[in-house]
Amino acid sequence: MIESSGRRERKKAATRQKIADTALRLFLERGYDAVGIRDVAAEADVAVTTVFAHFASKEALVYERDQDFEQRLTGAVTGRPAHEPVIPALHREVQALVRHCTAEGSAPIRRMIEGSAALREYEESMSLRHAQALAAALAADPRLSRSATACRATARFAIDAYALACRADDPEATVDEVFRMIEAAWEATAP
């Protein structure tokens, strides 16, 4: 039973990845607005219901690593060693995420997102959700002793650092600059 469950999960993950890869390829080849869910399903050789079993919307196909992104951010807070300050840990994780979003070959995806009102709106909604999850992780850490407002503001600024950096000429310098401000604000809110 355990073996078949593991195989089933691997098969589901492979199907999900195949759908996401197919969708991204089609979006980049034809344009986001020119491709429908039926097109993605047909090209990936799955049913439309299978696409929706893995992705809640067409926009979610572009942001298929959304949950992983959120887990990495909250994990920077919850998974850091007890002696490590939170802001440097968060800075390091945002910097790693920015390196991923600005890696070679990512420019066409960013242009596609910038060219689609639906994708920009989805990205903003996703950013707000990530900021809420990060704020909750900061507030839940008893070692931090910050107000809910300080946690929410810090989380939002960290998410904004990522967004600004992904569009900047010098992404790493942008993250560093924003995190210097975040660090100063965080220290100013210490009890």
**Low-confidence region ranges:** none
Largest sheet: none
Assess the beta-strand content as a share of residues: under 5%
In quaternary terms, these chains amount to single chain
| Order of secondary-structure elements | HHHHHHHHHH
- Rounded to the nearest angstrom, the radius of gyration is 19 Å
Could you tell me how far the N terminus lies from the C terminus, measured between alpha carbons in angstroms? Answer: 53 Å
Name the shape in a single word. Answer: globular
Tally of helical runs: 10
Helix % is: over 70%
| SS class | mainly alpha
Number of strands: 0
Write down the overall mean pLDDT: 93
Structure in a nutshell:
With 191 residues, this protein is mainly α. The protein has helices spanning 2-30, 37-44, 48-54, 58-62, 66-78, 86-101, 107-114, 117-140, 148-166, 171-188. The radius of gyration is 19 Å and the shape is globular.
Descriptors for this entry?
191 residues, globular, mainly alpha
Structural commentary:
The protein has 191 residues and is mostly helical. Helix content is 77%, strand content 0%. The chain has ten helices and no strands. The protein has helices at residues 2-30, 37-44, 48-54, 58-62, 66-78, 86-101, 107-114, 117-140, 148-166, 171-188. Helix 1 crosses helix 2 (37-44). The protein is globular, with a radius of gyration of 19 Å. The mean pLDDT is 93.
